[in-house]
Amino acid sequence: MNVTEVQEYVPVIGLEVHAQLLTKTKIFCSCPSTYGAEPNTLVCPVCLGLPGALPVLNREAVSMAILMGLATNCTIAEESVFARKNYFYPDCPKNYQISMFDKPLCADGFIEFELDGETKRVRIERIHLEDDAGKLIHEEDGGSLVDFNRCGVPLIEIVSRPDMHSAEEAGAYLVMLRKILRYLGICSGNMEEGSLRCDVNVSVMPAGSSEFGTKTEIKNLNSFKAVEMGIRYEIERQIEVLKNGGKISQVTNLWDSGAKKLVTMRSKEYAHDYRYFPEPDLLPLEVDDEWIDGIRTKMVELPLERERRFRKEYNLSSYDASVLCSEKKIADYYEELASIAGDPKLSANWMMREVMEELKEQSVSIEQFSLQPERLAGLIRLVKENVVSGSAARDVFKEMVKSNESAEEVVRRLGLEQISGEGELEKMIDEVIAENPREVERYREGKIQLLGFFVGQVMKKSRGKANPKLTGEIIKRKLSG
Ligand SMILES: [Zn+2]
Questions:
Q1: Mean pLDDT of the chain
Q2: In terms of C-beta density within 10 A (0-12 exposed, 13-18 middle, 19 or more buried), how is residue 46 classed?
Q3: What is the pLDDT of residues 155-193, one digit of tens each?
């Protein structure tokens, strides 16, 4: 696809995201909603849809949905109504899903995010609550097994308006949506485990047109990469069809992550008529101001606000601010570190390099990281006060990760105090000058880039302990004399 083709057609993209809520129990019964238990061990008559069993709404699930509604600038309905969405499928023992239809809990909000330095806003049509279905496990011999543990786990469905116009934009929206869910602590956001699922609607229209084209749906997108690849693939396919004079038919496509292509699942002509009607076993859900105000007090500073504050308050680059705000706990760690160490910039450098690398290497989260902000701040202070050199400090860091020692203790144990005494430095510098007469000559002839070479030699001689700045100054002084 070349650039002119993209300009001839405008893609229009909307996302429907399902997020599993991190409640202790399921939405309509008291079974635990834990992930990864032995199949069919977390079930009861309610979530198995046995005759006569009645649902009881989980208040915590509603509170979490409202929290998400507030975080995405939605209006919270005073009264919302659960509805039956009727369909038959082996993983749905009730033969219907309890969802919300014409009266959702949250509506008319928006999410903002930044893409290529520009602020984008995607409107949220609605956020509603529903119960999850079970899981089918397909065996190699062709048989299928059902695990009902996931039946009744609370979901929120977040439906965007078709406000996105490229795969990158849809990807950035989804990243921000996931960050918000995780900041609020209401969803793990793990796409591989299915706790965050994304369906996409895509259409294209001729540039300048205001009438949307026929949209198709993409399901089964189980990673951020799949979302962007699937959208890109579908946009190209639709443009190709239209350019050849064809028509787009309303279909649902499945993303085949192995083959990296879309497979048409069903034509919408055969799509379900869900025969929605109000759920007779549940009262309309009433939410008063007191409830909403109580939830508002739990609101945290959201990722985009925090990123912007980090840039301003700590003078960080957009990139650094976005990495440091990628997770709430990482941002919390950084702020604590910066405040104890008294140096936001230097603290950010240590976070971006050593800390992030170490987390990746150990495959641990920041909460599991052995080196807490106070101890690391101790090391950063030693660097700032020139007690240890930058390179020696990295060795100290490695030692501190493995032990409970303070920075001072490790520096003392390894004898890594930086040499800043002029006398001691001069002795080593004189040796280096004596050992490299040819370089000295070239330096004096004007090849001043050799300064780095001399500093390097002194660093080597001191086993990384020489103060590089001071060393450079002394060498310059000696060689110009
Ligand atoms: Zn149950």
A1: 93
A2: buried
A3: 999 999 999 999 999 999 999 999 999 999 999 999 988
Q: How far is the CA of 382 from the centre of ligand 1 (A)?
A: 56
Spatial separation of the C-alpha atoms in residues 215 and 28, rounded to whole Å = 34
Same-domain pairing of 307 and 400: yes
CB 77 within 8 A of CB 104: yes
> Ligand 1 centroid to 134 CA: how many Å?
12
- Structurally, how many domains does the chain consist of? 3
Distance 88 CA to ligand 1 centre (A): 19
Give me ligand 1 centre to Cα 313, in Å.
48
- State which residues form the domain around 84: 3-295
Q: Which residue has the tokens 């985009």?
A: 304
pLDDT digits (tens, 9 = 90+) for 96-136: 999 999 999 999 999 999 999 999 999 999 999 999 999 99
Question: Which DSSP string do the residues of 296-364 spell out, in sequence order?
Answer: HTT----HHHHHHHHHHHS---HHHHHHHTSSHHHHHHHHHHHHHHT-HHHHHHHIIIIIHHHHHHHT-
On whether both 407 and 450 belong to a single domain, the answer is: no
* Domain co-membership, 276 together with 354: no
Tokens (6 digits) for 85: 């969405």
Q: Tokens 């996302």 appear where?
A: 15
Whether 80 and 205 map to the same domain: the answer is yes
- Please tell me whether residues 34 and 155 are part of one structural domain: yes
In this model, does residue 6 exceed pLDDT 70? no
- Ligand 1 mean position to 299 CA, how many Å? 30
Q: What is the pLDDT of residue 266?
A: 67
pLDDT band (50, 70, 90) for residue 421? confident
- Ligand 1 centroid vs 148 CA: distance in angstroms? 9
53 C-alpha vs ligand 1 centroid, how far in Å? Answer: 10
Residues forming a β-bridge with 115: 118
